[in-house]
Amino acid sequence: MKKYTMKDFDREFPDDSACLEWIKSHRWPNGIYCQKCQKITKHHRVANRTCYECDWCGTQVYPTAGTIFHKSSTSLRTWFQAIYQMASTRCGISAKQIERESGVTYKTAWRMFHQIRKLLDEDAGFLSGQVEADETYVGGRRKGKRGRGAEGKSILAGIAERKGKIMARKIPNVQAVTLMPIIRQQVLPESTIYTDELASYNKLVQMGYLHRRIHHALKLYVVGDIHTNTVDGFWSLLKRGIVGVYHTVSDKHLQSYVDEYVFRYNHSKDEKPMFKTFLARISSL
User: Fold this and answer.
1) Are 23 and 67 in contact (CB under 8 A)?
2) Number of domains the chain is built from
């Protein structure tokens, strides 16, 4: 992945005008199509406004319309800086830190992050080859039993293609009726699926998959190529981020936080900087 430093950011986006120009060029790389003229026409920036006006008919277009920046009173550069910081870390960044560094209120910083996370929900596509499936429980310390079935915790299902992409989804339970449709939808037939000993995975062979188990209850974690270390490594990264950065995440918003971590993981080997990958999503609402 190409490095993109804070110096690069300051040079490319010194002010709101530079940010607005980037949005315009990203949304209309070949020029703005004027709906009234019914063709691509030359537009000029309207002074003191976040719009561009057609030189021929005067029709105005707002590059931020339909994006997370629409009708926001927060400066575009502050938005871009928040996206940069969010994209430049493996474990996330808190709204409290953005509040301290940018001067916006905590409420504004939290809303910005919430809006940015909306952009990061994407389909990983079909997974194939050697695939690992596992579930985990996320939540604060609560009384009651620990481990699988822990009371009051949120459940996540994860499927990871070795040396490939990962998907993770909040689920209501770990029953076969919940897990099997997810696997069928996400994993191509005849793939090899590695799981632990959970009985919910018993029907994988009947579904057309080659199934290999690692018995964690016997304290076995790797036997040859049989393991779930890929998806377990992602769970570890996710949980460290939630505990270390956010401290706690509500069940209501958990999926959006998971989407953020999945997105960074799946694009970690992209050639272009992660910040530019984040930015490219601004019109995906």
Assistant:
1) yes
2) 2
Hunting for tokens 């409420």 — which residue is that?
107
Does the global pTM surpass 0.85?
A: yes
Q: Above 80 in pLDDT, residue 285?
A: no
Residues 199 and 249 in one domain: yes
Other CB atoms within 10 Å distance of the CB of residue 144: 9
- Residue 199 is classified by DSSP as G
Average of pLDDT values for 56-83? Answer: 95
In sequence order, what are the residues at sequence separation of 6 or more whose Cβ sits closer than 8 angstroms to the Cβ of residue 105? 99
Alpha-carbon gap, residue 40 to 163, rounded angstroms:
43
Do residues 191 and 129 touch, judged by C-beta distance below 8 A?
yes
Angle formed by the axes of helices 254-266 and 106-118, nearest 10°: 60
pLDDT tens readout for residues 216-225: 988 888 999 9
Examine the pLDDT at 151 and tell me if it is beyond 70: no
Distance set, CA 54 to CA 21, 43, 63 (Å): 15, 4, 13
Residue with tokens 């959006």: 256
CA distance 74 to 200: 48
The one-letter amino acid code at 265 reads Y
Name the helix (H) or strand (E) containing 95.
helix 95-102
| C-beta of residue 257 within 8 angstroms of C-beta of residue 138 | no
Strand partners, 192: 130, 210
pLDDT of residue 283: 76
Residue carrying the six token digits 């992409």: 165
Q: Kindly tell me the burial class for residue 114, based on how many C-beta atoms sit within 10 Å of its own C-beta (0-12, 13-18, 19 or more).
A: middle
Backbone angles phi, psi at 116, to 5 degrees: -65, -40
Does 156 lie in the same domain as 108?
no
Go through the chain and tell me how many residues it has.
Answer: 285
> Which structural domain, as residue segments, surrounds residue 49?
6-117+273-279
